[in-house]
Amino acid sequence: MVGAPTLLGLVSLAHPVVSPPIYPAILEHLPWWVRLHALNLALFPLFALAAWLLLQEVRKEARGLPLGQLITAGALIDAYWTSPTIQALAVFGSIAWVVGMLAAAVAFTAPDRRRPPGVVALLVLGVTGYARTRLFQVHGSTDIQPVWWLVTIATAVAMAAARPRAAPALLVLAGALFGASHVPPPARWARLAFSSRPA
Questions:
Q1: CA distances from 1 to 10, 37, 48, 49, 53 (A)
Q2: Domains held by the chain: number
Q3: Which residues are 144's β-sheet partners?
Q4: Among 126, 150, 154, which residue's Cα sits nearest to residue 136?
Q5: How far apart are CA 102 and CA 96, in angstroms?
Q6: Which of 37, 46, 78, 158 has the most CB atoms less than 10 A away?
Q7: Is there a domain that residue 60 lies in?
Q8: What are phi and psi of 194, to 5 degrees?
């Protein structure tokens, strides 16, 4: 609980302060810039873990409230869940994840072959966005539709035309799958898994 926040703070003190034009400013600090942000990939989750451990004994649960308060708490939780602001943040987070994975797929491609995967990545972004909004689920159902799986796999196959083949295709899958949802694919699989557990 002390080590990770302290180390993150020390590393952050050495973060270069840059101002536009950004490219030459970062170029001047490039080796440390890359190392610092690679370190942060490990340190930020450890920092979050430290906060979670610190608050592990703190419980904010509604289930122990009296019935009148429980009804109010339930309404607040539902309002939060369906809030347009929260929904918008979720959508922007998903889009950012997909864009990041597609950019990584293009960057992973050999430099002399990046143009075709870049074009494919832009097409994949549009196709997967359309598939997520139009094909992902039937209205009123929580099951993911088979046609969405076909579109998702087809986008990964399209990116597999890059060299090397496997990593860009897997990055596209990671973007599409996690960008669309982080729950088990068809809801009925989840229902079966939870209903088969012993009480």
A1: 15, 21, 10, 8, 7
A2: 2
A3: 137
A4: 150
A5: 10
A6: 158
A7: no
A8: -75, -30
In the predicted model, what is the mean pLDDT of residues 125-151? Answer: 78
Contact present, 120 and 158 (Cβ < 8 Å): yes
**3-state SS, one letter per residue, for 74-140:** HHHHHHHHCCHHHHHHHHHHHHHHHHHHHHHHHHHCCHHHCHHHHHHHHHHHHHHHHHHHHCCECCC
Task: Tell whether 174 and 82 lie within a shared domain.
Answer: yes
For position 32, what pLDDT does the model report?
Answer: 93
Domain for residue 68, yes or no? no
Residues 12-44: tens digit of each pLDDT? 899 988 888 988 889 989 999 999 999 999 999
Phi, psi of 165 (to 5 degrees): -80, -50
36 shares its domain with 98: no
Does residue 129 form part of some domain?
Answer: yes
Domain range for residue 121? 76-190
- Confirm whether 59 is domain-assigned: no
- CA dist 68 and 62 (Å) reads 11
Tell me, yes or no, whether 97 and 9 share the same domain: no
Q: How remote is the C-alpha of 116 from its chain's centroid?
A: 25
Q: Can you say how many angstroms the Cα of residue 111 is from the centroid of all Cα atoms in its chain?
A: 26
User: Is pLDDT of 66 > 90?
Assistant: no
